[in-house]
Prior knowledge:
By secondary structure, this protein is of the alpha/beta class. It is 44% helix and 25% strand. Helix 6 links the parallel strand 3 and strand 4 (132-138). The longest helix has 25 residues, at 71-95. It holds the Pfam family LysR_substrate.
Amino acid sequence: MLTQLNLARLKNCDLNLLLALAVLLNEAHVSNAAKQLGQSQSAMSQMLKRLRLMFNDPLLLKSNNGMTLTNKAQAIALELTPLLDKTARILEAEHFSPKTAQGRIRFIMNDVTAQLIIAPLIELMSEKAPGIELEYISQNANGFQLLRRGQADVVIGFYDNVPSPIVSEPIGLAPWQMVTHRATNKQNLHANKDAIKLLRYQFQEHNQLHSIEALEHLDALDAAYALTSNSLSTLLYALQTNNTVTLLPHFAMDILPEHETKEFDWLGSPINLELKICWDRHQRAPELQQWFRRQLVTLFHKHFPLKQVL
């Protein structure tokens, strides 16, 4: 809340000087700061004099290596820089336009999802936000850590639990089901139950009950895991090995030619799992990120067989 005392202080302060101060402290050089602000060197020197009076501190001191910040100037810089960043974001909210936005958006999702969404996503961004570069990061165990560190902007995946302070919203429900390859397994799967090997998707370990029900159907509860992978496409091709089964989303079949998908047998009944979009609440360029998330969700509903989350 803005108190009367703080209001009086701000009324007696030329707030334009704070921008000059931020640039001066960042550059630690009067001439360079003047160029950044489009001012003459003499005008910048006058601003520095006024700032020294305002803060009752020299702020910048001459040294053998140019100019150095005083202790007070260093403390001011720590507070002032994020304050001006927030101010810029407030102003950006009023004028944000994807057509003129610049920068890079880094998103994480599994490889099969990326193969199905990447072409329409690039086409959409080229049309609506040509100044934005996309960076795809393959799904990995450090995805949420990358979000918290600001090294990724969006994570899309099937998660039961999303750690704080990560925010998540459901995109829709996709059917997953146990599956095997008919051509390689039709003679062996039921005949040699002890030889059945499970393939596990690294990020889909939370639906064990469904896996158990399917294994009961095969009378293969004691089956061992032969492979754990963070790549859905790797699991698809691993299924061509004798006596292998895994839990996969139905949409994974879309990356294979039709003659291949005909060779897969779905076991038991499908379950609908929630596809989520996740981000950090303290992310950079929030207006751009919010716009990008809306575009992604729209593309998923257009190109994926998703059911609405009730």
